[in-house]
Amino acid sequence: MPFTRSSLLLAGLAVAALVSAPGQNSAPRSKTPWWQNAVIYQVYPRSFADTNGDGIGDLNGITAHLDYLHDLGIDGVWITPFFQSPQVDFGYDISDYRAIDPQYGTMADFDRLLREAKKRNIRILADFVVNHTSDKHPWFIESRSSRTNSKADWFVWRDPEPGKSAPSNWISIFGGSAWQLDTPRNQFYYHAFYKEQPDLNWRNPAVRNAMYDVMRFWMKRGVAGFRLDAVPHLFEDPQLGDEKVLRPGKTAYGDPILTRTHTDNLPECEDVLKEMRKVTNQFPDGVLVGETYVSGVKELAKLYGANHDELHLPMDTQLGFGTLSANRYRKALLEAETQLNGNTPLFVFNNHDNVRSINRLGNGTHKDALARMLATLMLTPRASALMYYGEELGMENDDPKRKEDVKDIVGIRGWPEDKGRDGERKPMQWNGDTTAGFSTSRTPWLTVAPGYETVNVSIETRDPGSLLNYYKALLRLRKSDPALRDGDFALLNEDDANVLLFVRRAPDGTAALVALNCTPEARSIAVRGLPERSAKVLLSSFAAAGTTLDNGTLQLPPYGAVVARLAR
Ligand code: GLC
Questions:
Q1: Cα 381 from Cα 376, distance rounded (Å)
Q2: Is the pTM of this model over 0.90?
Q3: Which residues is 565 bridged to in the sheet?
Q4: 513 C-alpha to ligand 1 centroid (Å)
Q5: How close is the Cα of 533 to the center of ligand 1, in Å?
Q6: Sign of torsion, CA 172 259 318 125?
Q7: Which of 138, 186, 208, 537 has an alpha carbon 20 to 30 Å from 393's alpha carbon atom?
Q8: Which is the catalytic residue, given 50, 291, 391, 424?
Q9: Distance (Å, rounded) from C-alpha 308 to C-alpha 287?
């Protein structure tokens, strides 16, 4: 059946009306802040590029590859923590928020990175670890020294229960009790993560002010904003109270599986986000991205603030971190369109804490097609997006094979059930040299993943059919095509359990159809609900650009993805 006017004009319009978020299309483009519809590329600096041959990536390595990132077409780079740190949690344990860890370079290197990025119109976002410091941070060293020092109340301290037992049954996310008994205070301190990562006491105004000063310090230097780490964990119930057993069984670390009602996503988090937003607002272009694992869209919506006065871009994990399913994706996209109060969603499929999506999703077949489909799903709706280094190449997880090779401590604790996060943190694959062009060291901090000989920047740049060139084309299209850039969003064929179909329609009438086969089988689908009669391929994982899809029935190969211009 052709794309006929008759088939579903009314339904199409109804859906379009339903999902038109106010304010997003009407604003003139010049007023659109940079982070709306932006693509932010996450660099794990330890694994990106090593310029001094010590086997560990560094800031100069990022600077050296800014042309690559510019050419890829991203708008911002979020760099995971490069601050002074004992590296127990690879930088997420900070001992000085204002100093660069020598492993990663110097402040002069960072300033140069900022300057060079600016020349290429790339914004730099720092990772702000707000929930906890390192136990080697001077604030904690002082705090633990007595019950009366000036920082005594900067962390979360509690007296032992009779018999020296922990004040509550709370469990650390990284295993074991979340309470650590410490001398000379003879008190427990709380740590949501490792015991080397004591939680700051955000109820203390002095802590807040000190942290806001840190924000100003980096923003004055030229950082565009922050990815706020572990936002849900900022506050704990001052009344304590034991958690209940959520379900029988044990975690990979041997702990009972408990609720986290006293420690996660407490309402007070939002007060802090509002204060941080005020700090950020003092700088043009400032942006706050949040690491926000929440249970649903309602909780996510709250984090933008009722008056758009909290996070600019809380990470939307609803789309990217569930099962691969057209129905689920449809629901997540519709919710992002209709239930975020007109705020911009931030879609993400990959980061340094999760198995890479092409290994996590699907049945292990058609991985290249799956990568293209997921890229299209993330980059064609009305949203900002977070990419993770190497995603654009099809880099795969490469989990450790032996416990003795594991670097990420949770992988040692959880072995073999939880192998840790080394697998998704492997060196960036620049070329086919022995260490994939990541380092001149023959012993990089993590070994290079197999497959780098063919999955690498050098080869993929030269191959017009590569995944890398697909990403580039997609990123270009989302900026240049009026429908993908300014269009609204409407779902089509909503009862199809296999294929996700939607249309983006710009105010000038330009329309783009996006069709995504979410299954590893070929599918054919009769498109309903469009007034247009023909569709011409703009970009596709299987058909050449310019191919006409004008018979109304799309034939999609396994995980096939197509973006097409609709015409009457
Ligand atoms: C966040 C980071 C993770 C880190 C944890 C503790 O979840 O993404 O890598 O281990 O916080 O800081």
A1: 9
A2: yes
A3: 512, 536
A4: 37
A5: 49
A6: negative
A7: 537
A8: 291
A9: 12
What is the Cβ-side half-sphere exposure of residue 494, based on CA atoms within 13 angstroms? 14
For residue 519, give the DSSP letter.
S
Helix (H) or strand (E) holding 112: helix 107-119
| Cα–Cα distance, 358 to 393 (Å, whole number) | 11
- 326-361: b or e for each residue (b if 16 or more CB lie within 10 Å)? beebbbbbbbbbeebeebbbbbbbbbbebbbbbbbb
- 176-213: b or e for each residue (b if 16 or more CB lie within 10 Å)? ebbbbebeebebbbbbbbbbbbbbbbbebeebbeebbe
The two three-digit tokens of residue 497, written as one number: 């359990």
Is 291 one of the annotated active-site residues of the chain?
yes
Residue 22 pLDDT class (50, 70, 90 cuts): very low
Q: Which residues contact 250 (CB under 8 A, 6 or more apart)?
A: 256, 257
3-state secondary structure 514-528: EEEECCCCCEEEECC
pLDDT tens across 340-363, in order? 999 999 999 999 999 999 999 999
CB atoms within 10 A of CB 553: 12
Q: Is the pLDDT of residue 375 over 60?
A: yes
Ligand 1, from 79, 80, 92: best to mutate by most atoms within 8 Å of Cβ?
92
User: Which DSSP string do the residues of 55-91 spell out, in sequence order?
Assistant: SS--HHHHHHTHHHHHHHT-SEEEE---EE---TTTT
CA-proximal residue: ligand 1, atom 12 (nearest): 92
Tokens in use for 311?
């996070």
Q: What is the DSSP letter of 529?
A: S
Element (H, E) at 115: helix 107-119
- Sign, Cα dihedral of 21, 308, 80, 157: negative
Q: Where are the alpha helices (DSSP H) in 222-356?
A: 268-281, 297-302, 317-320, 326-338
Nearest to 536, CA basis, from 524, 551, 525, 523:
551
Give ligand 1 pocket residues (Cβ under 6 A).
Answer: 89, 92, 129, 193, 229-230, 291, 352-353
Q: Is 408 a catalytic residue?
A: no
Give dist(CA 444, CA 18) in Å, integer: 52
Q: Which tokens go with 73?
A: 């077409």
Centre of ligand 1 from the C-alpha of residue 396, in Å? 21
Strand partners, 346: 315, 384
Give the residue, by CA position, lying nearest to ligand 1 atom 11.
230
Phi, psi of 208 (to 5 degrees): -60, -50
Residues 299, 318: Cα–Cα separation, whole Å: 11
Instruction: Tell me the one-letter amino acid at 117.
Output: A
DSSP state, residue 448 = P
pLDDT for 31-86, tens place per residue?
Answer: 789 999 999 999 999 999 999 999 999 999 999 999 999 999 999 999 999 999 99
